[in-house]
Design goal:
alpha+beta; Trypsin Inhibitor V, Chain A; 2 domains; two-stranded antiparallel sheet
């Protein structure tokens, strides 16, 4: 059983290997004979012969891979909003994230730790109206 499976596998490999290079060639009108010999042990030898029409051995050309357009680069700088006093801190955070700012620091005027932004009101922001690199920190002052 193992020999039959091995022979079948080798026959399949031999037939797929007959295709040659990736460039298509004109197929001759004759048939080709493929002989595969495998030695399973030191004493047993198996031989398989198959006749395949030349057309079946012709290579299959693969479709070219479509080029994936590169994603647009995120902006390097953005303008810090100027009119922010009285805004909800969560709404301002959403706006700053949409502008591309990734490092926003919330500083409580009372010294408390800012945990839930929706519970805080913005009292000010450092450098309002200035253009700044989105990788730099933006400091937002908040109160309860």
């Amino acid at each position: 059983m193992k020999k039959e499976l091995a022979l079948t596998g080798l026959l399949c490999l031999a037939l797929s290997g007959c295709a040659g290079a990736n460039t298509p060639k004109a197929a001759p009108a004759i048939t080709e004979t493929v002989t595969v010999t495998q030695t399973a042990t030191a004493t047993a030898t198996a031989t398989a012969t198959a006749t395949v029409p030349a057309e079946a051995a012709a290579p299959v050309s693969a479709a070219p891979a479509a080029a994936v357009p590169a994603a647009p680069a995120p902006p390097k700088t953005a303008v810090i909003p100027a009119v922010v006093p009285g805004m909800n801190a969560q709404a301002l955070d959403d706006d700053l994230t949409a502008l591309g700012f990734k490092n926003v620091i919330y500083n409580a005027d009372t010294g408390k730790t800012v945990l839930l932004l929706r519970n805080w009101t913005v009292t000010g922001i450092d450098n309002p109206g200035a253009e700044q690199a989105v990788s730099k920190a933006v400091v937002v002052h908040v109160t309860k």
